[in-house]
Amino acid sequence: MLPLLLVGQAKKPTIMVVPSDAFCVGKGYYLTSNISGVTQKIPDYKKAMQEDSQLRLVITKMGGIMADRGFPLKDLEQTLKNIETESAELSMMASKSSGADINETPVDVLRRTAKADIIMDLDYTIQKQGPKQIITFNLRGLDAYTNKQVAAAAGVGAPSSFATADLLLEEAVLSHMDGFNGQLSRHFENMFQYGREVTVVVRVWSGSDVDLEEEFTVNGEIDALSMHIEDWMAEHTVSGRFSTVDATENLLKMEQVRIPMMYTNTRGREIAMDTRRFVSELSKYLSDTPFNLETKVYQRGLGECWLIIGEK
Amino acid sequence: MRTTTTLIFTLIISILSISNAQTRKDLKAIYNSQYSYELMCLGVGQDGTKAIKVWGYGKTAEKAAFNAKKDAVAAVIFKGVPGGNGAAPTPPILGPDGYEKHEAFFDNFFKAGGMYLSFINITNDGAPSGTDRIKMNKGFKVAIYASVNFDSLRKYLEEQGIAKKLDAGF
């Protein structure tokens, strides 16, 4: 029993079905916002979930299938309600002794949104062709870490004169989910083989004494800080896989960074690795000699983490 | 001159015989191949099932229908179901090398009266007739309309450690 307790498991991705922007705008579930003189349509998920019974039917059906495959879906409607309740509670909460409220920066407020590791971006339309109805179904699995499409299922159902719209929708879900899950399975296999794909960005605070072009000597080799960071990345990513997409004196952006799924901590226990923990290891490396740098680890989204050099 | 013509004629006959033997050998290999499943999708099945039409071969029509049942389950496991009649394609539960990897398991699974029968519902009982029953030189080729309990089959193979669960490793 003891060895079982010591072996951890990789972080299980959360999956959420979200109606696509095209679906929301097409059905009138959107809010209009004026940003810098440009009018934009923003999807109103709450309205969509409250008013569209067909959408709820599709999400329920998909949820049942995914739960059966070991991935209970994170429910969008419930998540939105929870965020509202959390905001209300946070605004009312006060310490018993001093009456102090909860510390929250504007960034914390901004980041209080519905999140999932994999978004199932859903879109469908039911068109009429004479007496017949035809359903066009489009489901995309988007990895929130990389914004890449990792699974897809799209197609047009058989025209029907007798089936109701609800029945056509149910049929479309049943028809496409096995193919979708097959692709998702291959994505997970790839993840276990080559590591989780994330983005790591190194930035510099404006008051910092050093930038990424500052030279340091490591093992007798003099090089710019950015090059030493890249060397560390090559050693700690799975098979040294990462791509530097931007490199200046103030910015080092690395994409397609393959971090291991698991790592062994100082107590010998194997635990799941995530982007924040991976970047924290880089932070520890930079805090040591010869760098002696103070850094801030800032997690941005699920698969992106920033390391900001100069101060906490 | 006559000798040369005879020689050329003999050579041509020999070459033709060899190529014909090769063709027959190839055809026999295709016929006996465990990867050769002939099936088509009949549409979207009920929840957790796949509705398919499968062809089977046998010396008698009954034997061919019996083989078609086996092929229906084997095709879903190793080949997948092609799309059609409004249904999207379904990927196989295992890859094409699934049999080689778990030979002992599948030999037992597909034995006469084996577990595979519990995952199939035949929709046309009895020997097929009409265009679904073709008399061949040495037997019959018949088609059956079957509903395979895809979800139950996948779960069974996952429980037996043959197929990988979607959440394996998490």
Highlighted features:
heterodimer; A: alpha+beta; Rossmann fold; 2 domains; 5-stranded mixed sheet; 4-stranded mixed sheet; globular; B: 170 residues; alpha+beta; 5 helices; 5 strands; 19% strand
Q: Tally of extended strands of chain B?
A: 5
Class computed from helices, strands and strand pairing of chain B = alpha+beta
Estimate the strand proportion of chain A: 25-35%
**Rounded Rg of chain A:** 24 Å
Number of helices of chain A: 9
Uncertain residue segments of chain B: none
Mean pLDDT of chain A: 89
Shape of chain A: globular
Number of DSSP-assigned strands of chain A: 15
Intertermini distance of chain A? 42 Å
What general form of chain B does the structure show?
A: globular
CATH architecture of the largest domain in chain A: 3-Layer(aba) Sandwich
Into which percentage range does the β-strand content of chain B fall? 15-25%
Gyration radius of chain B, to the nearest Å?
A: 21 Å
> N-to-C SSE series of chain B?
HEEHHHEEEH
Please mark out the parts of chain A with pLDDT under 50 across 5 or more consecutive residues, or reply none.
1-6
Order of helices and strands of chain A: HEHEEHHHHEEEHEEEHEEEEHEE
Strand order of the largest sheet of chain A: 10-11-7-15-14
CATH C-level of the largest domain in chain A: Alpha Beta
Description:
The complex is a heterodimer of chains A (312) and B (170). Chain A is an alpha+beta fold. Chain A has two domains: 14-85 and 111-192, Rossmann fold; 195-309. Helices cover 36% and strands 31% of the residues of chain A. Chain A is built from nine helices and 15 strands. Chain A has helices at residues 2-6, 21-27, 45-51, 53-68, 76-92, 106-110, 165-194, 225-236, 275-287; strands spanning 15-19, 30-35, 38-43, 118-129, 132-143, 149-156, 196-204, 215-218, 221-224, 243-247, 251-259, 262-264, 270-272, 295-299, 304-309. Chain A has a five-stranded mixed β-sheet with strand order 10-11-7-15-14. In chain A, β10 (243-247) and β11 (251-259) form a beta hairpin. In chain A, α4 crosses α7. The radius of gyration of chain A is 24 Å and the shape is globular. Mean pLDDT of chain A is 89; it is low at 1-6. By secondary structure, chain B is α+β, with helices and mostly antiparallel strands. Chain B has two domains: 1-32; 36-159, no CATH class. Chain B is built from five helices and five strands, in the order αββαααβββα. In chain B, strands 1, 2, 3, 4 and 5 form a five-stranded antiparallel β-sheet that branches. In chain B, β4 and β5 form a beta hairpin. Chain B is globular, with a radius of gyration of 21 Å. In chain B, 32% of the residues are buried. Classes of the chains: A alpha+beta (312), B alpha+beta (170). The A-B interface holds A 9-13, 68-71, 153, 155, 157-158, 171, 174-176, 178-179, 181-182, 184-185, 188-189, 192, 261 and B 43-45, 47, 83, 85-91, 150-151, 164-170.
